[in-house]
């Protein structure tokens, strides 16, 4: 199959390399049978933490932080939600892939662990909706 990778930055290059290693032919978009579009999700400053969702790197106080797959998925989903945030069931569907309420405190536990790792003020819960903090005092600012 002939595929094209459209996008800027190192992530697009890494995806093209991975497709080549998988045996696919990477070509220009006009010659492709399929197109892979790469868009950077964003780089956020969350208080003392800097999180780059497109490269998978996170730093707190200048030290690299290794986040779990679920922590990355939770951060990405909250970033996509913007100011509106996500309620518990929306997060369960998007992050855990469940279409039902498991009857546990799985979201609260993972949010608490993530807050402990990247900073207590990074994620807030207002009226049952979780969101990344915006504005002064540890907000989520796009870099």
TrEMBL record:
SMART domains: Trans_reg_C. It comes from the Bacteria. Signal peptide: none annotated. Pfam families: Trans_reg_C. Residues 41-135 bind DNA. Keywords: DNA-binding. InterPro entries: OmpR/PhoB-type_DNA-bd, Sig_transdc_resp-reg_C-effctor, WH-like_DNA-bd_sf. Residues 41-135 form the OmpR/PhoB-type domain. PROSITE patterns: OMPR_PHOB. This is Winged helix-turn-helix domain-containing protein.
């Amino acid at each position: 199959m002939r595929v094209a990778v459209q996008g800027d930055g190192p992530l697009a290059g890494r995806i093209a390399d991975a497709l080549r290693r998988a045996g696919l032919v990477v070509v220009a978009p006009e010659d492709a049978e399929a197109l892979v579009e790469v868009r950077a999700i964003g780089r956020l400053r969350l208080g003392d933490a800097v999180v780059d969702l497109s490269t998978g790197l996170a730093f707190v106080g200048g030290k690299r932080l290794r986040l779990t797959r679920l922590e990355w998925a939770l951060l990405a989903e909250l970033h996509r939600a913007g100011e509106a945030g996500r309620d518990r069931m929306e997060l369960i569907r998007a992050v855990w892939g469940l279409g039902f309420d498991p009857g546990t405190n799985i979201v609260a536990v993972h949010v608490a662990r993530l807050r402990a790792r990247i900073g207590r003020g990074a994620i807030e819960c207002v009226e049952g909706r979780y969101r990344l903090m915006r504005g002064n005092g540890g907000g989520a600012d796009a870099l």
